[in-house]
Design brief:
It is a single chain. 37% of the residues lie in helices and 13% in strands. The protein has one domain: Glycoside hydrolase/deacetylase (TIM Barrel). It is globular and about 45 Å long. It is an alpha/beta fold. Bound molecules: zinc ion. The site of zinc ion has 6 residues, from loops.
Length: 299
């Protein structure tokens, strides 16, 4: 919802009728119809307000992960405030569900070249993976020189974190975004299908596709905003559910944590994780992995 951060200040969030529960249930039903499990990146704010939604998602076998508390851009925060945000949001989700949270995705892909310190903090706060660095050029985010596929990141504090980039395709020496969020919704569906095929046949890697609950809600109230923001937010909302249904039908998906443990996403992360797993403070959930954001990693 970054497009409307100026129009809808945080302190007024509670005054708006919330559609997140209904929209998340729509996604849960869709996933159930296709027998698909995904990773649900919750806002701490949503977890505090709707803890039973967190439990519902967990009970259906999906992975729970963290998408910050207030949806503020990481690169706009001082490190101490980021740490506080991460702590309270991780805690809100874990308290609601009773299972540990290992994954983080920054609001609006806001970890970039100048905010890599955030990865050190995530590792210190008990996260095992991050999925926030988009290796593209974009007016609001991106780190074009970052690796395109999952890798183990060596933090400056000596810790390690697996970084899981969203999908890109490489054309004429440039990285192009693909198969998630606005790119999934606004670009022709043929492009998405071609991207999946390219990953399958050429890259031989899973596609880490993603979308938000509001993207399956064509009836949502229209908030007056600039042309660019409105275009990015409202285009093709009515097509997302149908397109998702096609993808879910055609491909196999699994939660990020599951793909990570199986070595499907990043083989070199598997051995290292065997050690860090011993320090779980919660009972191990069956197959741990939106409410603010949904994730599926095609396996
Ligand atoms: Zn978001």
């Amino acid at each position: 919802m970054e497009a409307f951060s100026n129009e809808v200040p945080r302190r007024t969030w509670g005054d708006w009728p919330s559609r997140v529960v209904e929209n998340t249930r729509k996604i849960l039903n869709l996933f159930e119809r296709h027998d698909v499990k995904g990773t649900f990146f919750f806002l701490g704010w949503v977890a505090n307000r709707f803890p039973s939604l967190v439990r519902e998602v967990q009970a259906q076998g999906h992975e729970l992960a963290c998408h910050s508390y207030w949806h503020r851009r990481v690169c706009s925060l001082p490190p101490s405030e980021f740490r506080e945000d991460v702590r309270i949001s991780k805690d809100a989700i874990e308290q609601a569900a009773g299972v540990p949270v290992y994954g983080y995705r920054a609001p609006s892909w806001s970890i970039n070249k100048d905010s890599l310190w955030a990865l050190d903090i995530l590792a210190e706060e008990g996260f095992r993976y991050d999925s926030s660095i988009y290796p593209i050029r974009h007016d609001l985010y991106g780190f074009p020189d970052a690796p395109r596929f999952a890798y183990v990141y060596q933090c400056r504090n000596g810790r390690e974190l697996t970084e899981i980039p969203p999908p890109t395709v490489r054309i004429a020496g440039f990285n192009f975004p693909a198969a998630g969020g606005g790119y999934f919704r606004i670009f022709p569906f043929l492009y998405t299908e071609w991207v999946f095929q390219t990953f399958e046949q050429h890259y031989r890697k899973p596609v880490v596709t993603y979308f938000h609950p509001w993207e399956v809600d064509p009836e949502q109230p229209r908030i007056p905003a600039g042309l660019k923001s409105s275009f990015r937010h409202y285009t093709n909302l009515g097509l997302v559910e149908k397109r998702l249904g096609v993808l879910l039908q055609k491909h196999l998906f699994q939660p990020i944590a599951t793909a990570l443990e199986a070595g499907d996403l990043c083989p070199s992360a598997v051995k290292r994780k065997a050690v860090s797993m011993e320090h779980r403070s919660f009972p191990v959930a069956p197959a741990v992995f939106p409410a603010e954001q949904t994730e599926g990693s095609k396996g």
